[in-house]
Specification:
The protein is of the alpha/beta class and 444 residues long. Helices cover 51% and strands 16% of the residues. The chain is built from 18 helices and 14 strands. The chain has helices at 32-43, 51-58, 67-84, 89-92, 111-127, 131-145, 156-182, 186-199, 204-216, 220-238, 244-253, 280-292, 304-312, 331-341, 355-367, 382-389, 396-399, 406-418, and strands at residues 8-11, 17-20, 23-26, 48-50, 93-96, 99-102, 109-110, 272-276, 297-301, 319-322, 346-351, 371-377, 423-430, 435-443. The chain has a 5-stranded parallel beta sheet, sandwiched between helices. Strands 3-2-1-7 form a 4-stranded mixed beta sheet. A 3-stranded antiparallel beta sheet has the order 4-6-5. A hairpin with a 4-residue loop joins strand 13 and strand 14. Helix 6 runs antiparallel to helix 7 (156-182), helix 8 runs antiparallel to helix 9 (204-216) and helix 9 (204-216) runs antiparallel to helix 10 (220-238). The chain is globular and about 65 Å long. The N and C termini lie far apart (78 Å).
C-alpha cells in the first residue's frame, strides 16, 4: 500500500534514508556514487542540476571517458531507491534541459530543510519575545545540524554543506542559550552553553556565556574553572589571553567588584566601528571582542545592503570590519559602493577565504583610495583587532607625505623607452562589476 506523501521524509543527516510513516525506513542505496547523487539532488531539490555538475561531484579529479554511461547507471540506482521509498521515480526524478531535477511531491520533507527552517522560526520567535518557542525550535535546529552529513565522503560540495551545518549548529545553540536566559531558565541555558563550547572550543564568546551562566546558577567555583579552561586553551592554541570582557564576566560571576577593566580609558574609546558579517554568531563574537577592547561606538549589519542603509542614515563609522563572502551583495561590491560614495575611509577585511584572495581584495580596495588597516583570516581575535584598529589614522589622507618624484618618473620613462627596463603587468579585476580596478607591475 502506498504511503501518503505527507508522511514521507527524506533523511540526509546522520544517514541516507527515506522514512515512510510507520513503515521501516528505506536506506539501501547501491554504493557511494548513488549516495552522492541522491544526497546532492535532495539537498538541491526543486532545482535542475546539470549532468556536468553531477559528474564533477562523482569524479572530482579525472572524468572517465565513459562518465555519461556511468552516470546513467547511477541515476537508475537512485530511481530504484525512490521507488522502494514510496515515491514514483517517473514523477520525482525528472530529466530536463541537459540536467536532472528532484521534484518532491507536496508534503514530502527533507531534514536539511527542517534544520534551516527551525532556526529561522527560532529567530522570528526570539525577535517577537516568545522565548519558549525560540528555545524549542533552536534545539531542534541544533540537534539536526549536529548529525553528520556524508561523513565518509570528501567531496568539496559536501564539505561546504558541512560548513553550513557547523555554522547553523553554533548559531542555534547560542540562540537557545539566549532564549532560555530570557525564559528564566539559566540551568537550561547552561546546558546549551556547554554544548556550544564543545562544538567550537575556540569561540571565546561561548566560554564567556558559560562563565556568566555558572555565576547565575551560583556555581562560583565552576565559573573560575571555566575561566581557567578558557585561558589555558587560548594560551596554548592561539597564544592569547582572555579579553577584558571575559575577565569582567568572571569577576561578575564570582561576585567581585569590577565592572570596569583596571587602568586608564581604552585608547579605542573614541572609535566608531561597523561590523558587516552574515554569520550571526561570528558577528556577535566580533562585537563582543570590540566591546572588550573598549571601542566606544558599535554598529552591525548582516549583509552589504543592510550596511549601506545604515550608512545612508545617521551611522558614520571610522572603520568598517567587513566579511568578504556574503550572500547577495558581497564584501567586495559593498566596499566599492562605500568608496565611490565616500561613506567610510578605513576598512578591515575578515574572511576565511584563501590568503591570495584577501590580498587581491586588499589591493583593489586601496585602489579605491581606502585606508585598508588589514586583511585577516578567521577566527578573529582580540589581539588582531586591537592591532589593526590601532593603525587607524583619521587624518591619514590629509597628512600622508607627498614626495617629489618627477626625476624618478623621468628616469623610469627613459629606461622603458630605450629597452633597458621592461615592465610586466598583471591586472586586478573587480569581479562584481567586471572591470579592471588596478594593476600590479613588475619591473625587470
Amino acid at each position: 500500500m502506498a504511503v501518503p506523501p505527507s508522511q514521507t521524509r527524506i533523511v540526509l543527516l546522520g544517514r541516507i534514508a527515506i522514512e515512510q510513516g510507520d513503515r521501516a525506513p528505506e536506506s539501501g542505496l547501491a554504493g557511494r556514487r548513488a549516495e552522492t547523487v541522491f544526497a546532492y539532488l535532495a539537498a538541491h531539490h526543486g532545482r535542475t542540476v546539470s549532468r556536468d555538475v553531477l559528474a564533477t561531484a562523482l569524479w572530482p579529479e579525472v572524468l572517465p571517458d565513459t562518465w555519461n554511461a556511468a552516470l546513467r547507471s547511477v541515476l537508475s540506482d537512485v530511481r530504484r531507491f525512490l521507488e522502494r521509498g514510496g515515491l514514483d521515480p517517473a514523477q520525482t526524478l525528472l530529466t530536463e534541459q541537459g540536467g536532472v531535477r528532484l521534484a518532491l511531491p507536496e508534503g514530502v520533507t527533507v531534514d536539511l530543510d527542517e534544520a534551516r527552517g527551525a532556526l529561522a522560526t527560532a529567530r522570528d520567535a526570539h525577535g517577537a519575545g516568545d522565548a519558549s518557542t525560540a528555545a524549542a525550535c533552536a534545539e531542534t535546529a541544533a540537534d539536526l545540524a549536529e548529525l553528520p552529513f556524508l561523513a565518509a565522503h570528501d567531496d568539496e560540495w559536501a564539505a561546504e554543506l558541512r560548513g553550513e551545518l557547523d555554522r547553523l549548529h553554533t548559531d542555534a545553540l547560542a540562540l537557545r542559550a539566549e532564549s532560555l536566559v530570557d525564559a528564566g531558565d539559566p540551568r537550561g541555558a547552561l546546558v546549551a552553553a556547554d554544548r556550544l563550547v564543545r562544538a567550537d572550543p575556540y569561540l571565546e564568546a561561548a566560554h564567556r556565556l558559560r562563565i556568566t551562566l555558572l555565576g547565575r546558577t551560583g556555581d562560583r567555583a565552576g565559573a573560575r574553572k571555566a575561566y581557567e579552561r578558557c585561558a589555558a586553551l587560548l594560551a596554548s592554541e592561539l597564544g592569547l589571553e582572555p579579553s577584558a570582557e571575559t575577565a569582567a564576566a568572571l569577576r561578575e560571576a564570582v561576585g567581585e567588584a569590577s565592572a570596569a577593566v583596571p587602568g586608564s580609558e581604552s585608547p579605542l574609546a573614541g572609535l566608531s566601528v561597523l561590523v558587516v558579517e552574515d554569520h550571526d554568531f561570528q558577528r556577535r563574537t566580533t562585537l563582543s571582542l570590540l566591546r572588550g577592547l573598549g571601542v566606544g561606538e558599535l554598529h552591525e549589519a548582516s549583509d552589504g545592503a543592510g550596511a549601506l542603509r545604515l550608512l545612508d542614515g545617521a551611522v558614520a563609522p571610522d572603520v568598517v570590519v567587513c566579511d568578504i563572502d556574503m550572500p547577495g551583495m558581497d564584501g567586495v561590491e559593498f566596499i566599492r559602493h562605500v568608496a565611490e560614495r565616500g561613506l567610510v575611509t578605513a576598512v578591515v577585511f575578515a574572511s576565511g577565504l584563501d590568503r591570495r584572495v584577501l590580498d587581491t581584495v586588499r589591493a583593489a580596495s586601496e585602489g579605491y583610495g581606502l585606508q585598508v588597516l588589514g586583511a585577516v583570516g578567521k577566527p578573529l581575535t582580540a589581539a588582531s583587532l586591537e592591532r589593526l584598529l590601532g593603525e587607524f589614522r583619521p587624518d591619514h589622507a590629509d597628512t600622508a607625505p607627498v614626495a617629489d618624484t618627477t626625476a624618478a618618473v623621468a628616469a623610469v620613462v627613459d629606461a622603458l623607452d630605450d629597452g633597458s627596463l621592461t615592465a610586466m603587468f598583471e591586472p586586478i579585476v573587480d569581479l562584481a562589476v567586471g572591470r579592471i580596478t588596478g594593476l600590479d607591475a613588475t619591473l625587470d
